[in-house]
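quick one before i forget lol
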Amino acid sequence: MGGNALSVTAVRLTKKNFERVSAQCIERLQACFPGHRVAVIPAYRAKADFGDCDILVTSAGYDPNKAAAALDAVEVVRNGPVTSVGVVVRDELPPVDGNVFQVDLIAIGEDAFDYALGYFSFNDLGNLIGRTAHRAGLSHKHDGLWFYVRDGDYKFREICLTRDYDVALRFLGYEPARFHAGFETLGEIFEYVSGSTFFNRDIFLLENRNAKSRIRDRKRRTYMEFLKWCEARPELPAYPYPDDKSAWLPRIAEHFPHFEAEYQQALKDMADQRAVKVRFNGEWVAKLTGLQGKDLGALMKNVKESFDSQEALHQFVLGSSEEQLAARVREVHATLVL
C-alpha cells in the first residue's frame, strides 16, 4: 500500500486506465477464487490518477501466489497479509518501468472484511477517524473498534467493541449515511472528519503525537494536507476532551452491551495475575532452589507448563499454601537436567 513496494518504478494510471486495470484484476481474482469476497478499495471521485490499486480478498483458502499467477504478475513482494504484485498495463509493451502498475492484495478474515473495506476507503480517512478513537482510549483499526485493558504501559487484553463500521462511526460522532454516499474531493473528506461531535484539531497536530506516529504521519500526504486545511480554518469546533480517558467508560458501556462484563472479567484476571506474580516469581524460586540465569528461567517455564492452562496455574498458586507451592516447584525441578 502506497505504490512503492516493487523494484521497478510503478507507473501512475489515469482514472480511466485505473478502472480498466482494476476491473480486470477483480474479474481474474473472482475466477481464481470463486466464492471469495473481492473488492477494490474506493477513492474519492475526483481523484485524477492512481499510484496503486488496493484490493481486499477474504483470507480463508486464499493463496497469494495463486493470485499473483492469475494476474500474470511480473513481480511479487510479500509483506504479511499484503502481497504487492506488478501487473502489466499494456500487453503489447515489455514489462519494464512505465508499463508496470502496483496492485496490493490485502487478505482479511470474513468477519472483518466489511470493517476493513470501510477503514481503508477514501485515502487516509480511516487513519484520521482513528485519532478521535485514540483520544477516547480506543483503537480504530482495519479489523474493528477495540478497547485495550492496560496495566500501566502493558496491553493486558483487547476487547472488540464492534466490527460493524456504521456502529463505530456513530459512536465516534460521525454520520454513516454521509460516509456511504462517498466523497467528491479531499476537501469533502476533511469536512467529514471535522464534522464529528468529538472533533478537536489539537489531537491531530504532530507535536501531540508520539515519535513513531510523527515520523509515519509526516510521510502521509493526505494527513499533512488535512493539517493545512485545519490551520486555514480557525473557526473549527474544539471538543473539550477529559484528561482521564476513563470518563469514556460509561458511554462505551452504554453503546456496547457486552463490554461491561468483559471489562470486569479482564480487571479480575489482571488482579489475579498480579497476585500470582507476588507469590510465584523468579526471586522467590531462586531463593527456594538456588538457581540463577538460564537454569532459573528453564525451571520457571517448566513449572508453568506443568499445568493444563494459565487459569489452572493461577488457581493453584492462589489457592495453595507456600509449602504446597514450594513442593510443586521442587517436584518439577527434580525432573529436569540443568
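fyi The chain has a mean pLDDT of 94.
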